[in-house]
Automatic annotation (TrEMBL), chains A, B:
<feature type="binding site">
    <location>
        <position position="107"/>
    </location>
    <ligand>
        <name>substrate</name>
    </ligand>
</feature>
<keyword id="KW-0028">Amino-acid biosynthesis</keyword>
<feature type="binding site">
    <location>
        <position position="221"/>
    </location>
    <ligand>
        <name>substrate</name>
    </ligand>
</feature>
<feature type="site" description="Important for catalysis">
    <location>
        <position position="189"/>
    </location>
</feature>
<keyword id="KW-0100">Branched-chain amino acid biosynthesis</keyword>
<comment type="similarity">
    <text>Belongs to the isocitrate and isopropylmalate dehydrogenases family. LeuB type 1 subfamily.</text>
</comment>
<keyword id="KW-0560">Oxidoreductase</keyword>
<keyword id="KW-0432">Leucine biosynthesis</keyword>
<dbReference type="GO" id="GO:0005829">
    <property type="term" value="C:cytosol"/>
</dbReference>
<feature type="binding site">
    <location>
        <position position="245"/>
    </location>
    <ligand>
        <name>Mg(2+)</name>
    </ligand>
</feature>
<dbReference type="InterPro" id="IPR004429">
    <property type="entry name" value="Isopropylmalate_DH"/>
</dbReference>
<dbReference type="Pfam" id="PF00180">
    <property type="entry name" value="Iso_dh"/>
</dbReference>
<dbReference type="GO" id="GO:0051287">
    <property type="term" value="F:NAD binding"/>
</dbReference>
<feature type="binding site">
    <location>
        <position position="135"/>
    </location>
    <ligand>
        <name>substrate</name>
    </ligand>
</feature>
<protein>
    <recommendedName>
        <fullName>3-isopropylmalate dehydrogenase</fullName>
        <ecNumber>1.1.1.85</ecNumber>
    </recommendedName>
</protein>
<feature type="binding site">
    <location>
        <position position="97"/>
    </location>
    <ligand>
        <name>substrate</name>
    </ligand>
</feature>
<keyword id="KW-0520">NAD</keyword>
Amino acid sequence: MKKNILIVPGDGIGQEVTEVGKKVLIKIAEKFGHEFTYDEALMGHVAIEATGNPLPDETLEKMRASDAILFGAVGHPKYDNDPTAKVRPEQGLLKMRKELGLYANLRPIKLFDELLGASSIKPEILKGSDILFFRELTGDIYFGEKGRKNDGDTAYDIAEYSRYEVERIARKAFEAARTRGKKLCSVDKANVLETSRLWREVVQALAPEYPDITVEHQFVDSAAMMLIKDPRRFDVVVTANLFGDILTDEASQIAGSMGMLASASVGDSTGVYEPIHGSGHDITGMGVANPMASVLSAALLLDISFGLKAESDAIISAIDQVLKAGFRTRDIADSTTAPEFILGTDAIGEEILKRI
Amino acid sequence: MKKNILIVPGDGIGQEVTEVGKKVLIKIAEKFGHEFTYDEALMGHVAIEATGNPLPDETLEKMRASDAILFGAVGHPKYDNDPTAKVRPEQGLLKMRKELGLYANLRPIKLFDELLGASSIKPEILKGSDILFFRELTGDIYFGEKGRKNDGDTAYDIAEYSRYEVERIARKAFEAARTRGKKLCSVDKANVLETSRLWREVVQALAPEYPDITVEHQFVDSAAMMLIKDPRRFDVVVTANLFGDILTDEASQIAGSMGMLASASVGDSTGVYEPIHGSGHDITGMGVANPMASVLSAALLLDISFGLKAESDAIISAIDQVLKAGFRTRDIADSTTAPEFILGTDAIGEEILKRI
Ligand SMILES: CC(C)[C@H](C(=O)O)[C@@H](O)C(=O)O
Ligand SMILES: CC(C)[C@H](C(=O)O)[C@@H](O)C(=O)O
């Protein structure tokens, strides 16, 4: 298979972990006889520094021309406590999602057996949990009009959803449920929000087309509680942009660590694959970042954008073997890990590469 | 002290648990020599059935005339899967909050030592956690304009905050932090929302007035994750209406069970005290509902609305003793609880009354 992959490392540890993700793609191509070509582009704080723009036109053009994108993270502490900063790394992220029409954000929350102890949640509650989130990514309160009135003393944000926006993400979720546990939980706040009432209407209207899927509706507050109390009751979850942002970060605790979670953002053309963790400026340059989320992002890329399931499974199995061999990065080590088994970014990357 | 308390049991188990809460108030008055008078009023589904209105004018008048309100819960399954129902129990709840100006919702998340094992979170992560949430309750996307356009195919909800709305709740939170661990975490989504940018601006502007308080700002997605990963890092948390709804339900898992959590909604006049659990229609009429959240609501009422700290502490200590004696309701029992120690609503209520 011939494909061209764009590498967008972004900021902070994004650069360190994406390098490992890319090496894994190169190894897979070699081993399975594919021809992947790579290009690279700037985004986030590094792009602001270089061009004044968090998502330069050149990057956007390369993105549009790519078959898939392996992305790192964007962000820099200098913007975090300055809500008034006019140019921010996150603007690049949001613009990319909108411009590329990446309306579906998939976040698989799957626990590697070896990491059962790493979570703050009890192992007996977690064991066997396996959730696939579909977060809508180009609508809701993220992209509606927002601003100030009354001399800046009143702020507003408009949440908005159209029927077709809900329908296309809901269909993706229904279809995914078919290939899994056949359960779909739609999360909304229909007892308060009009956008949620539309959301629920649309999901209810689609349900008869998927008679093999059991559909459940939960309010977001209750879902936030149930995810912790009983994660195994969830299979596929579909929800709006803002609720998805909150619930998927929360659910990362089910997998023990953010450092193990990948996500796919897809729509009608190219797809973006990235760790759900951020740019980790507190550990940037130390060489200790866990690259497994980037490696798992590469696995998702092969599976979802290229349909290369065996290649994707080879990566997941390599990670599984590395964990079974006892190797850990700092973030997933515990008191039972011997110091010589705690590896840095590159060293654990080598262990993964060896096992592909 | 002479006070008049309005009892609003509402729907489902609201009626069963509020009866126990009221008995506890009667016992306290007797024991500490206060003169509490009681009136009762309808709200929620029962009010819709009786009058067509989830918050009848008569109820609202009685509320305004009261010194404090002990409230149960509202809701009925018949509305839950009908997003189009025109009259709903929750409308009564939202209208009450707005009409009475109950802009501050306080939710203390405190774990009784005896229940350390009841949570899905590991005891070593939980031990010693003690969080006080301040959820803004009369603004945000709950009360902005909402509706449909494009022939009903597009839905919208407007989130709105004004400077003074943020300031008054933030001040309450700062002041509470003074009497506790002196840490305030303000939760927002300032990297995306204009309302959050205003929120952060206001909290930042107030901080210099409270130099003894350490202020931290967290994004809501990250806060949802940290609450589970490391609950002990939080002391007082202040946040907007919608984020507060989600995070406090999630945080209920820190306390082991929703059945143990009380909340206070206060503003400039009367206060409303209620369990954070709902109307529990699946267990209504079975006599098994845990009344402790209602009893703890009565304790909050005495403390916050009447300033009766000793009386409030007497209630909390009675509950503590009941738990230490080994008594449990079904929801907080575990495999080590002997069947004869699992009590129903009234029986555990009697055990509490005995110990006041
Ligand atoms: C950085 C931020 C704008 C972004 C979001 O809220 O979508 C992030 O939290 C995410 O989940 O990708
Ligand atoms: C019933 C619902 C409208 C309400 C809310 O969202 O405020 C409830 O969840 C609560 O937290 O009191």
